[in-house]
Amino acid sequence: MSSSFVLGRPPRILLGVCGGIAAYKALELARLFAKQGAELQTVLTAGAEQFVTPLSFQALTGRAPRGALLDAAHEAAMGHIELARWPDAVVIAPATAHCLAQMAAGLAGDLLTTLLLATDRPVWVAPAMNPHMWTHAATQANAAKLAERGVRFIAPASGLMACGDIGQGRLAEVDLICAQVMASLQPAPAAPSSPMRGLKAVVTAGPTREPIDPVRFITNRSSGKQGFAVAEALAAVGAEVTVIAGPTASRLGSGIRRVDVETAQQMLDASLTAAEDADLLVSAAAVADYRMQTVAAQKMKKSGDELTLHLVKNPDILATLRARYPQLFLVGFAAETERLAEHARSKLTRKGLDLIAANWVGEGKAFDTEDNALSVFWPEGEREIAQAPKAAVARALVALIAERLASRPRPPLPAASPA
Ligand code: CTP
User: Which of 136, 277, 311, 335 could form a disulfide with 361 if both were Cys (CB 3.0 to 4.6 A apart)?
Assistant: First the structure.
């Protein structure tokens, strides 16, 4: 297996595990890394050992985890400075609020934090904690400081927590953590044979935000997660990806160009520019259909018992792109609460799309959740992508896009012909 690694040997990952309930998921993460052929050394904090046993990690990775900083036997085998130089990447999953604070402050009170100061290798952090702890100004400031220093974050997911709270704080899906880290260590294997290699792709993601007055706006529940996952899946198969993102707290994997926008009009303008030399565009954004006819210059004051807002239609981004770039391979999304196939097929035709991925929304489905399922339609066929984490759904969708791109009548790498 090692011959397929860019490094010429299996990638080495130092997996740091902190003390939180999500520590049990680190066992599955270790198993996934091992399955991908990585060599693993785990480092458990004292807190982590309260949740999971070193023996479990030893069984999964074939190496005894390291724990104490001043352990004579371990230090004799591989000193902590040597250990800091050993990996190709350091991954902390789960990372607690305390760990982030220690990292931000540069503390080195235990083996893990000492290694983090001593290593010059890429550091990935997958935080997991109570939603209030994650959104606390102190934690956010620590995370921002670390991100500025180059630490790569795999943002926590939203949902019901073990503590009963609902919000953002759950450890990201372990298969997403594994995929992102492995893709950074071995970008070459997927690419050479991929039909997507070198193609220029644009992905729109997240909601748009239409201002009402200086303090209010109209938006929707889109989290941008499915769009970001599609962008990451496209990048993983060698495409050159630009994401046009509406306002979202979701984070994108490294190596993907990101253009932030707010309104539908700004998303349209950015899409027209980005699509100029692109081969394909995936429109995963939940674009607001309407905007205020006139945005109030001052904060609107409360007056009568009722308020009517005068809205006007936003431009349709996909339809505009189709008119401007007839050769562009266009993929749309359709979020439906009823008659899914009928509505999706109608949008496929109306907007001149090559493919449309439809999903059910409402009642906790798809928007701002971790899982999704898609029914994908194209003029001559359809395929179901079963319920799975959004990253896995994105990979399946990208595989289908590659298939359709290869089999469409137009040449797969057309010279864009702007009107
Ligand atoms: N879309 C777009 N421009 C808009 C609205 C939507 O490009 N102004 C794109 C979305 O990004 C998505 C597809 O069109 O890929 C379908 O979006 P959806 O909101 O489901 O469809 P609409 O055309 O807005 O139809 P409706 O709201 O009536 O279902």
Answer: 335
Question: In this structure, which topology does domain 2-184 adopt according to CATH?
Answer: Rossmann fold (3.40.50)
Query: What are the tens digits of pLDDT across the range 149-165?
Result: 889 888 898 877 777 88
Spell out the residues 6+ positions from residue 238 whose beta carbon is closer than 8 angstroms to its own: 190, 191, 194, 196, 197, 198, 199
Q: Output the CA 283–ligand 1 centroid distance in Å.
A: 9
The DSSP output letter for 151 is P
Dihedral angle, C-alpha 107, 109, 114, 117, nearest 10 °: 0
Alpha carbon distance 140, 145 (integer Å): 8
The finding on whether 183 has its CB within 6 A of some atom of ligand 1 is: no
What is the CATH code for 191-405? 3.40.50.10300
**Smallest CA separation from ligand 1 atom 24, residue:** 289
d(CA 162, CA 377) in angstroms, rounded, equals 38
Q: Among the atoms of ligand 1, which is closest to the Cα of residue 331?
A: 15
Under DSSP, is residue 238 helix (H, G, I), strand (E, B) or coil? coil
Q: Convert the pLDDT of each residue in 68-77 to its tens digit.
A: 777 776 776 6
Residue listed under structure tokens 């980005």:
274
Contact 321 CB / ligand 1 (< 6 Å):
no
User: What does the block give as tokens for 225?
Assistant: 């997660």
| Residue 87 preceded by cis peptide, ω within 30 | no
Predicted TM-score of the model (pTM)? 0.59
State which H helix or E strand residue 92 sits in: strand 89-95
The residues spanned by each domain of the chain are: 2-184, 191-405
